[in-house]
Structure formats: structure tokens, C-alpha cells
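User: Before I run my own analysis I want an independent prediction to cross-check against. Here's the chain; please return only the C-alpha cells and, at the end, one sentence I can use as a sanity check.
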Amino acid sequence: MLVILVVLTCMSLLLRKVFNKSLMTSRFLRDADLSFDGFIKAIGLMTIGVLSLNLIAYANTYHQEPLEVRLEHQVDDLDSSIYQDGIYIGSAQGFNGMVTVQVIVENNAMTSIEVLEHSDDPPWFDRAQTVIDDMIGSQGTDVDVVSGATYSSNGIINAVIDALD
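Assistant: C-alpha cells:
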């Protein structure tokens, strides 16, 4: 969109030079040039309006997080020494709804975390799922959330906490 604005600005400047040098011979043409300026200003305002609407649409379509992300406090990390072997199910709030996970514990260690259900947008939820490997690797839930998918990351982490609590 920025390219379009630059091209329109360059075209405006070029056309102004052409009109100013070749058509300023009569009062009528000078008045036409003034209306040309008005036309260019109107085009510029319409372009800015279209760019603004496109930026708003882009922000709403491609960004899950608001510009200012309110970080929620996570439940304290679980003590891995208290994991009991078994299969556990837990749920927590994600971005668009509840996230449900299944956690498998073998030999007092988390060996598998599987997302059973979620309603978050796939591009961001897929990115957020990297916290699963982090939790299994660290054998805990005190892991970093994924930037740009904070709510989905917290949904997965808090669902695991719910399952093991």
C-alpha cells in the first residue's frame, strides 16, 4: 500500500509540472489547474482512507494479539516430583475458547501432551504448540509463551496445569 501512495504522489508531482509549464497561458487553464489540485488532494485523501481501512483490516485479520498485551499471571509451576503415572485431561481458556489437553505421565515424568480440542485460529495456535515440547523438555509448566500467540500459549500451559493439578 505504501508503494501505491508513493506512486500516486510521484504522478501528482509530475502532472503538476506538466500543467504548470504548458497550460498556464490562459485564465481558464489556470482555473483548471486549481481544480486539478483539488482533484489530486481528493485522490490523496481517498488513498489515505483506503490505506487506513486496509491497515485496520490487516490488524484484525492477521494479528491475534491486541497491540498492548495484558499478561496474565500463570499458576505456579507444578513440582515434577509429584507426577503420578496416568493419563490426565485438563482444560483452560485460550484466545477464542477452551483448550483441552491430554497429558500422559510415565515413570513420574510427562511423556506426552496432546491437544484434544481448541477453537483458536490455526496459524497462531500452531505456533503456540511449541510450548508443549518446552514443557516436556523442562518437565514443568514454567515455560515462555510464544510471542504473537500469548493467549493460545497460556491456554495450553494452563490446561496442562489443570490436568496435573
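Sanity check: The mean pLDDT is 75.
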